Structures are given as C-alpha cells and as structure tokens.
Amino acid sequence: MSRAFLLSIQNAVGAIGVKGRTPEASNCFATELNVIDWHDPSAWFNADVWVIGVKPNQFQTACVPLKSIYDAARHKPTIISLMAGVSLATLETQFPNADVVKVMANLSIATSKPVFAVNANRSLEDIPFADVLKILGDLVVLDEKEMHLATVLLGSGPAIFLAIQQRLYESGKKLGLSDVASLQLSQGALSGASALSVNQFMPQDIINQIASPGGTTEAALNVIEYSELLDCCEDAVVAACGRSIEISYNGQNNANSD
Ligand SMILES: NC(=O)c1ccc[n+]([C@@H]2O[C@H](COP(=O)([O-])OP(=O)(O)OC[C@H]3O[C@@H](n4cnc5c(N)ncnc54)[C@H](OP(=O)(O)O)[C@@H]3O)[C@@H](O)[C@H]2O)c1
Question: How far is 218 from 210, CA to CA, in rounded Å?
C-alpha cells in the first residue's frame, strides 16, 4: 500500500525518502521507486511529512526508531497514516501534538485517479501539506467512526468485486471457454463496469441501461436476485466493519488488516 501511495503522490511533492524494515529493504524500495534511501533516521529531522504504511500490528515496532527523532524535532512533521485500524488517539500517543491525517485508499491508486477517504485530528485546511491529497484525488472527508466503512468499501471493496470476477471467470471456463479467453472476458467486464461507474451515476441506473427487458443481462440478474447472492453483500460489509472496529480497539498488538 505504501508503494502505491508513493507512486500516486510522486509527481506532486518534493523529495521523497523511504525507510523499510532493514537497510536492504530501504535500499530496494528506494531503487525501485527512484526515491531517496532514508534508512538512517537522522535524515527525517527535516521532513515535512511522515507517511506510515506498515500493517497495524507492525505499528508499535515501526515507531521505535521514529519516536526519539519525533520528540527531538523542533518542527513536527505532519503524520499521514495509511494504516486501517490504528486510531487517531493511538497515533497521537506516539506523536504528541502532531497534525495527524488518516488516509484510506486502495492499491489501484498507483494507476488511476485516487479516491482518498480521510479523517484528521484538525480541519484539513489547517494541516500543512494535506492539500496535496486534494490536488491528487477525490477526497471523502469522514469522522473516525465512518472510517471503518471506508476501510471496507474502499480498502477491501476491490477484493469483493474481484471475488465476483473470479466466479465469472470460473463459470466461463467451466462452460467451455479457454482459460485465457475467460480471464480476458471477465477482466473486460470488470474494467467496463469501472469505466461506466463515474461521476454521480447511480449503479442501478447503469444496470438499467445495460439490462434490456427480456435480454441476457436480465436473465443473469434474475438468477442473482433469486439466489440472494447480493443480499449477503450487506452481511459482508457488516462482518468486515466489525473486524475493523475490533482491530482498532485491540489495536496495535494483534491487528492483521489487509
Ligand atoms: N493492501 C491493501 O489493499 C490496503 C488497502 C487499504 C489500506 N491498507 C493499509 O496499508 C497498510 C499496509 O498494508 P499492505 O497490505 O501494503 O502491507 P505490506 O504489503 O505488508 O506492506 C507493509 C510494509 O511495511 C514494512 N514494514 C514492516 N515493519 C516495518 C518496520 N518496523 N519499519 C519499516 N517498515 C516496516 C513491511 O516490510 P516486510 O515485508 O519486511 O514486513 C512491508 O514492506 C496496512 O496498515 C493496511 O491497513 C492496505
């Protein structure tokens, strides 16, 4: 996720430095992204923004080398957290008096215009460098409770659509298509849906345009409605949201979000 985030902001900000878990990881990351290797924490004294994109259960460990630098820095960096399930309060405990922005996105931001769900401990207008997010993508500003739903709809959402694509692909293959043809057709379906789902269009209105009465789409949708497949979507969102809340509260030690 950090890689995708950096790729999405790369052209809009100044120097970017990266730190991985080990010197080798930092170097590898820096070379791949053509940014600066900042494994040595002393370089961070002058950074305006720190982006933290480890898994939530790695957060406390990742903070260890950051803490003393942060405490000693006269000019406190803006903290951007990509971590689902790490609350503002937890971040503020590690980084007292910092401007903190929680950002939820998904891996597609590296290649398409991002949608960022954001939640901050101050008004975004008052947070230095938060405006970069506004320039780069569509911002959905939420309160902390709503961020759990952003984690599910925006963060996990692509996997939900891909699970349906997987089933379409498997059906095509089972019913006689070659592996490659079925994969390509199901990819075309997903990218077609994505291209149509823009601006303020409601998905149901687009479905109505695709599904002519008595046609093939209607035949498929009738079966889907009948099987109550789509009803379980709400259960899936509720389950994932519950997990997000669980992770947030128990947090930092046992979280394992993706
Ligand atoms: N995956 C998604 O689609 C998605 C969507 C929305 C939000 N997120 C959020 O993005 C965050 C990262 O998720 P991910 O799926 O991208 O995880 P990931 O692939 O495991 O990436 C985390 C990176 O952090 C590194 N790391 C771990 N401990 C570190 C430390 N102490 N110091 C420096 N670097 C350290 C890891 O290195 P190692 O490989 O050595 O462990 C790894 O390169 C999570 O908090 C998740 O909630 C992810």
Answer: 9
